[in-house]
Specification:
- By secondary structure, this protein is of the alpha/beta class.
- It has one domain: SGNH hydrolase (Rossmann fold, 3-Layer(aba) Sandwich).
- Strands 2-5-3-6-7-8 form a 6-stranded parallel β-sheet, with helices on both faces. Strands 1-4 form a two-stranded antiparallel sheet.
- The radius of gyration is 20 Å and the shape is globular.
- This is SGNH hydrolase-type esterase domain-containing protein.
- It comes from Roseateles aquae.
């Protein structure tokens, strides 16, 4: 088994350029901070691509870059390197596309407040959480806090953007090639932001703002992540509208949970929403098997 060899779009422009033909499988990658190559992230919560291993030499051109990478799925429109390498007439033929998307969008949806800055109500279909006067009966469990109308808005957004991405794929030389997505692990809402305090925590302040009981925070987080996993898997099963989409359910990978209330590295987590190296190792190796099995069938 060989580790995935990761390169950047700039490596294709070097003299001499990177020889992709030296690899059996050639992949194109784009995504959020789980794919970021920023030095601070590599030394802290790692990079999921680093933990992918395949039975044959495999290379990936990673467009996620050294910033926070994609903050939202719609940012694909401004990801020029990725769009060109995916859809341009002279782009390489990729054996597959690796994506790490939807997580930041889910977090932003959960962070949407119940009221605007000037005190106006935010409609229920524009947020994922309900304020206390909107909670359902206790018999609903933690679903009583969850906005189904808001979820439908989010789900429509995901469907639209994934359809657009597959259209881009089919405009270029890699038409019909498999697109691989992972789901996300279930984070423990806790006061654990980035070490340099540049961002986060993410879910913790949102759940506090909505006055959700702390005893239910972990279950609310699980509910949202499982909703996303079920959505992505249902899209992958819809071969007519989402051809070639393959989704790996990361929620099935056993991870060591972070301790409630902890503020630093805990379990398999570096901070509230990012895995540490051990967490990336566990999900990366499991996802590798899923991706490798599909690639082996086509080449």
């Amino acid at each position: 088994m060989d580790h995935l060899a990761c390169f950047t779009p700039a490596d294709l422009q070097k003299k001499p350029p990177l020889d992709l033909n030296a690899y059996h499988w050639r992949l194109l990658a784009q995504g959020d901070s789980w794919f970021s190559t920023a030095e601070a992230k590599l030394s802290a919560h790692a990079n999921l691509l680093q933990e992918l291993m395949f039975s044959k030499p495999t290379a990936a051109i990673n467009c996620a870059g050294q910033s926070d990478a994609l903050s939202h799925m719609v940012d694909l429109e401004s990801a020029a390197d990725f769009v060109n390498l995916l859809s341009a007439d002279d782009a390489p033929v990729w054996d597959g596309i690796l994506l790490s998307v939807c997580g930041n969008d889910l977090i932003q949806a959960a962070q949407t407040p119940a009221h605007t800055a000037d005190g106006q109500d935010v409609a229920l279909h524009l947020r994922l959480l309900r304020r206390q006067t909107e909670w359902g009966p206790p018999s609903q469990g933690v679903a009583r806090y969850f906005s189904e109308p808001g979820w439908q808005t989010y789900a429509d957004y995901v469907r639209t953007n994934l359809r657009h991405l597959l259209t881009l794929r089919d405009q270029g030389p890699s038409a019909g090639k498999p697109v691989f997505m992972h789901c996300y692990a279930v984070p423990m809402p806790r006061p654990a932001g980035a070490v340099d305090a540049s961002s986060g925590p993410w879910l913790y302040p949102a759940l506090k703002a909505y006055a959700l009981p702390a005893a239910d925070w972990a279950a609310v987080s699980r509910l949202m992540v499982f909703h996303l996993a079920q959505l992505l898997k249902s899209l992958a099963a819809d071969k007519e509208n989402f051809p070639g989409l393959h989704v790996f359910d990361s929620t099935t990978v056993p991870l060591a949970n972070a301790l409630p209330g902890s503020s630093g590295v805990s379990g398999d987590w570096h901070n509230e929403i990012h895995l540490n190296h051990s967490g990336c190792f566990k999900i990366g190796r499991a996802w590798s098997e899923h991706v490798g099995a599909v690639l082996s069938k086509q080449k």
